Amino acid sequence: METGGNSQANTVGSDATKRKVCYFYDPDVGNYYYGQGHPMKPHRIRMTHALLNHYGLLNSMQVLKPFPARDRDLCRFHNDDYIAFLKSITPETQHDHAKSLKRFNVGEDCPVFDGLYSYCQKYAGGSVGGAIKLNHGQCDIAINWSGGLHHAKKCEASGFCYVNDIVLAILELLKQHERVLYIDIDIHHGDGVEEAFYTTDRVMTVSFHKYGDYFPGTGHIRDIGYGAGNYYSLNIPLDDGIDDECYVSLFKQLMSRIMEMFRPGAVVLQCGADSLSGDRLGCFNLSIKGHGECVRYMRSFNVPLLLLGGGGYTIRNVARCWCYETGVALGVEIEDALPENEYYEYFGPDYTLHVTPSNMENKNTRQMLEDVRIQIMENLSNLQHAPSVQFHERPETHFPLDEEEQPHPDESFDRDSSDADILNAKRGDEPKPSLFYTQNLQMKQETETVVESESKPEHGDGIEIMISNTTTLKVSETVTLPVKIESVSSDKPVS
């Protein structure tokens, strides 16, 4: 497989600052298949990679195959029994586990499919691996387009998401950075990430999303965090048809102030492409350039940046978008005419990188957007200054040792059984909303060829991790969450 080599990118961007970019890609991730008719198609990651290859962008990045996340890595956020369930359930055995399927919200939106747990390991490993690279100063921007699954909760699946790789990556970044900013430009509210950090001031979550009769039904502008996290959750509710001009203007005004007030040590940007015009499940009217302008703007702050994927269900446009945004990360302007590639027929009839937004009505009036801007600015005014976090000792994250130096797995991990449940207490037992099956959505059928997975679960051979001291992340008024210092490593080149 052509990978473009492993040369570090030293591309000069529009702000005349060099960038080193690490790009995480597992060739097998495109094999996984949610099932007939399901809108989530991991195959889009392979299509994105093909465009990157044929545009020559792989030559400007360090291309890495992530180590799969292990059980212990996933359990830094998720409950042990939930991870054990994901690991054991198969399409053949699921009918014997009706109670567990309901308990963990696995079934319709989040089906059981061949290789499910291996899929979770791969996409989570890329996000945590990117965080490790950033922590070690080995890149300025890390990219994992297979990640960004922002709906997964501590002990349940949601909205096509099983494991919340974003939360795991942020926990990794918090080992090195006192404050981490999370930004979500997916059309759906980033509820899983917000919920995880709702009561801490070390992580600010900012979500731009469709609000109303729309999955997941959360993300009201009045949802601002709780306890120590009060005003550290910011929600920007939007209506149908928002265009580039309105979206980008609001984004830049708010993010400028947020960066000034919060002063993060690292930024995680979830680049869900379902906010693009023409998305199968979306209702916004953004162009690829408009969506990419948000990436360009956050790049300009010269803060360590982790770019992740997310939603996106018109897969030819998802591949276009994430290819373009990889170019933005590198500071490279790529031609509109698509190069010939394995999936060239998907991009007809125009065979261009950019697509023209529709003429749909923009239901976001200027007054509505101004009211939102004023409210968010008012919320920010309640932040007196960026929180100060005193670290007694900052532990290191170790990369894999030589085989003979590796600790025994049973000796390298000792997770405290008293880990606090940081799920938002506001969530009750009401029926869970559905992103796909129970929403009244008009979805265009696409002709797509998706290879069913024949992958076998990975167990992370040869990636035992050294454990260092323990630090704590404040997550509520009364408890602290011990964050054990273990992680997935990330420097295995694609071969």
UniProtKB/TrEMBL annotation:
Binding site for substrate: 109, 159, 313
Gene Ontology cellular-component annotations: histone deacetylase complex
Gene Ontology MF, one: histone deacetylase activity, hydrolytic mechanism
Binding site for a divalent metal cation: 186, 188, 274
GO biological process: epigenetic regulation of gene expression
Enzyme Commission number(s): 3.5.1.98
Cofactor requirement: Zn(2+)
Highest taxon, organism lineage: Eukaryota
Record domain Histone deacetylase: where: 38-326
Main location: nucleus
Active site: residue positions: 151 (proton acceptor)
Keywords attached to this entry: Chromatin regulator, Hydrolase, Metal-binding, Nucleus, Repressor, Transcription, Transcription regulation, Zinc
Keyword Amino-acid biosynthesis (UniProt): no
Family matches, as PANTHER family: HISTONE DEACETYLASE 19, HISTONE DEACETYLASE HDAC1-RELATED
Protein name: Histone deacetylase
Organism: Zostera marina (Eelgrass)
